[in-house]
Automatic annotation (TrEMBL):
Region (Disordered): 371-392
GO annotation terms (biological process): organic acid phosphorylation
Name of the protein in its database record: Glycerate kinase
Cited InterPro entries: Glyc_kinase_flavodox-like_fold, Glycerate_kinase, Glycerate_kinase_RE-like, Glycerate_kinase_sf
Gene Ontology molecular function: glycerate kinase activity
Record-stated family: Belongs to the glycerate kinase type-1 family.
Keywords linked to the UniProt accession: Kinase, Transferase
Transferase listed as a keyword: yes
Amino acid sequence: MRGNIVLAPDKFKGSLTAEQAAWAMAQGVNRADPELTPIVCPVADGGEGTLSAVVAAGFEPVDAEACGPTGAPVRTGYASKDGRAVIEMADICGLQRLPGETLAPMTATSYGLGQVIAQALDDGCRDLVITVGGSASTDGGVGMLLALGAEVQDRHGAPIAPGGQGLADAARLELSRLHPGLSTATVTLAADVDSPLCGPLGAAAVYGPQKGVSADQVGELDCGLTHWADLVARVTGEDRRNAPGAGAAGGVGFGALAVLGAQMKPGIDMILELVELDRKMLDAIMVITGEGSLDQQSLRGKAPVGVSRHARAHGIPTFAVAGISSLTGAQARTAGFRAVRTLHEVEPDLTRCTANAAELLIRVTEQLVRDSTQSGQPQPHSFAERGRSVDI
């Protein structure tokens, strides 16, 4: 059987990067039928792994050094192509950059993100895409703005403390020294969070606990974010605290929307545009996507569901391979998957499954392709339900 199969997985966290997963799938396709052509297209959802996905799609990596979430220097960078810069917050000052994985709910800062934005501007980039999944801070974007030249002081004229802890003390905001490159730049905020900055659905209340924020600290941070939003509104003449996405990345969304003039775009759609998934789907007979764990969270805008949505628009059947899956058959069908397979159904021991993920992924993909193309057309086969396949 001839035809193209697009392979568009996200990372298998702890085992394989998205690119490694895609190439393992490609080996599985070749084993199943050498006449099939695998089209490798690793994807991401805007968090960890975004830079790797866009570099695999042809962007050039640019090295940078910046402050991590607690101020310690980290080696990071951005990806560049034709004047466009893709900047991944997770790689600069996200949860993965916390020293010793120790959470810093009140002091973590977005300062490093601003440093890399400034470097991209210095390098001549004027089309900036900021992906903000996996952030460690709840500072309303103040750190990012400080690194871009803003001045924020308390009522005594002293700099405020870093992180969300200093927001309540902010009394003066000066924006006249913002990086001059911003005046001619287009900024896109790639985020799948449409929550407001403050209140019960805001950055501190909803996402703070994931960053170690205690119940008492939620109230403190929310008051600080409200005070910060009041100050920004007075200075800019516009109140963006309730704009969709203002609560993204602990309020970095608010800083980008209110001060940098950013436009928001759903993170997965932005990434799939950058990696040119739709173009790669031309003439494809099927798409295989996947990630380490398919679960309820996957249904709320994660990469595999985004891939499925794009494939469905082209009328192409989509199949998923995951390390493990807790989706029911009904949930998987609703997500647009013709079938779901898991590595766990082949290797029930999770330690061995993680260690041997690449070879298992090759085997599972090979069998999936054989089963789905045996009649000459991709066919539904089975859904993996709680780690095992069940017929539909």
